[in-house]
């Protein structure tokens, strides 16, 4: 940073990080237990010290400038290092801890991972907020620039500045409407070839390897309907004769609610995994560690 560090009050960096995370002086003030005028005054001081606006007003709140995007990671890394030295690893006081996390959770895992964590927050950690956002093609850059704290996704990032940890295997099953008239249990390859399917869009579908395996088994699927989100598959399958592939954990969560049957896939499929990914600068951040370890614990207790 091109300024005299002796003039910097550490609290200004804490406020800067809160503003970046929340995109709002009001939410940053609430998170930090400060008044909104005090946060605005701190932002004004920081702007003078750094010589940049840092945030500009946008219809959706405060939009970080390129300078803010440039310095957010060094700031978070520095704050994380300080916290890790002052607080014992993994030891945070959930009753008083304040944090706004922005995360990506792939649709099939949100109903599995997040309810237990939200229950813990509402009863034990009133100062923690989690904002789950949709993944974009640039989600790795969002992790790097601090826009995303943690991502749970089926496609790992191969980069030295992003930590990638296996969350769990992804085992696929086939969903059909309950007592589908065209299926004799167990579902066989001929039935799989014959029945039309609903599938996720082609852009995501290519990553799963399912189509390649089906082609190798001389099974080209007919997909008269493609969906943008896996959640949309369930009502389509329930109300039509379409069938569809879905992760087993997700299928187990939704089958009863949507009156669906779950079938084993009658051909071998490639092994897949879900991953947790975060910036290396967050590795020792005790709050960040609490969130990712909580996710791992949920998966371990919900096989």
Report a brief summary of the structure.
The chain is an alpha/beta fold and about 300 residues long. It contains twelve helices and twelve strands. Strand 1 and strand 2 form a beta hairpin.
Q: Strand percentage, roughly?
A: 15-25%
- What spatial order of strands do you see in the largest sheet? 4-3-5-12-6
SSE string: HHHEEHEHEHEEEHEHHEHEHEEH
Give a count of the beta strands, DSSP E runs of length 2 or more: 12
The helix tally amounts to 12
Structure classification: alpha/beta
N-to-C terminal Cα separation, in Å?
46 Å
Q: What is the CA-atom radius of gyration, in angstroms?
A: 23 Å
**Uncertain residue ranges:** none
Helix-residue proportion: 40-55%
* Gross geometry: elongated
């Amino acid at each position: 940073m091109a300024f005299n560090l002796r003039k910097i009050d550490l609290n200004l960096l804490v406020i800067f990080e809160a503003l970046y995370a929340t995109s709002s002086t009001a939410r940053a003030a609430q998170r930090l237990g400060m008044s909104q005028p005090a946060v605005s005054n701190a932002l004004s001081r920081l702007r003078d010290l750094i010589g940049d606006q840092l945030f500009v007003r946008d219809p959706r709140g405060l939009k970080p400038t390129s300078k803010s995007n440039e310095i957010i990671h060094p700031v978070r890394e520095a704050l994380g290092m300080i916290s890790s030295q002052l607080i014992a690893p993994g030891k945070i006081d959930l009753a008083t801890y304040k944090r706004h996390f922005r995360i990506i959770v792939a649709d099939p895992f949100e109903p599995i991972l997040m309810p237990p964590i939200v229950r813990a927050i509402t009863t034990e950690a009133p100062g923690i907020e989690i904002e789950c956002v949709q993944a974009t093609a640039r989600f790795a850059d969002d992790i790097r620039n601090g826009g995303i704290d943690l991502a749970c996704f089926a496609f790992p990032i191969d980069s030295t500045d992003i930590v990638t940890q296996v969350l769990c295997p992804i085992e696929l099953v086939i969903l059909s409407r309950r007592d589908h008239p065209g299926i004799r249990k167990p579902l066989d390859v001929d039935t799989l070839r014959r029945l039309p399917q609903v599938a996720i869009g082609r852009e995501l579908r290519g990553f799963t390897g399912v189509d390649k395996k089906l082609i190798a088994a001389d099974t080209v699927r007919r997909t008269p309907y493609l969906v943008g989100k896996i959640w949309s598959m369930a009502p389509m399958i329930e109300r039509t004769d379409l069938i569809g592939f879905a992760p087993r954990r997700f299928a187990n969560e939704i089958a009863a609610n949507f009156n669906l049957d779950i079938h084993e896939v009658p051909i071998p499929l490639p092994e897949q995994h879900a991953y947790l990914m975060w910036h290396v600068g967050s590795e020792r951040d005790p709050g960040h560690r609490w969130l990712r370890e909580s996710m791992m614990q949920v998966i371990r207790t919900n096989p």
